[in-house]
Amino acid sequence: MTRKTLTLLAGLLLVTAPSALLAQSDECVDTTAISTNTVISNAVNVCKSTRGRRRKNAFAKLKGGAMQLAGGIGKSNARQIKNLLNQVRRRNCSVPSGTPQCSNDTAYTVNEIQTALLAGVCTAKLQSKRKAGLKKFKRGVKKLERVLDATLVASLNSMIDALLASDQCGAGGEKSSNPSQCKQIVKYRNKDLWKPVSDANGNPVFLENQFRTPSSCSVIKNSGQKIVNLRNTGPSNGRNSTWRVFSRRCTAFPNNIFVACKIPGQGTKCWKVPRACSRYE
Fold it and tell me: For the chain, how many structural domains are there in total?
């Protein structure tokens, strides 16, 4: 779906935002739109004012910011800006020959970006994903502050804040189904492992190696209901602790369970196990 076709969703734009913001329509005015041409022209100035590692870091930040705007301007457009930024740095700080002139197809007003976010990020089922998508876009804007007009940056941030507070987006959607006792859902890192069939007894085993040795671990449901306590049999296979199930096979567990471990001084950390008979590490 192209950026322009998203305008059919204009009737859905019920988000409260400053009236001045909603009145913006001029595609090629720096204060009202993200223009590919303007971004690249300003990036040339950044290039000329930096050298060596400072230049490298500056452009890495700009390219990262461009890709974080994808939810509001489209992946292909974000990728085009990123590629043009690469060329600016590699071609002795000059505007690449392929840089498009500002037009309706290469400039993105605040209203158009808002419409795109409502049609994309704000349709996520979970509220947490909606908020994450909006905050990602906002981080992208911050990274691009050196090549965007300050008034435009302020308007974009106001629009994102309004969406975060709106039932249509950040304040809507389903609440996370993660157990309430989990202070943090952590990724499997540093050799953490859920093994559905252990060599010792054929039952599941969880090997934890990311934090200080937990004081206790258990398997719980989405609702937080405890299924079974795990027993620590000490270090094994290069991990800090080995938490075993002694009472049941992996087939006896439902889907979407969690290993919940109490880490001294850090609260309860949880590892998600979508399918108990699959391996996760």
Answer: 2
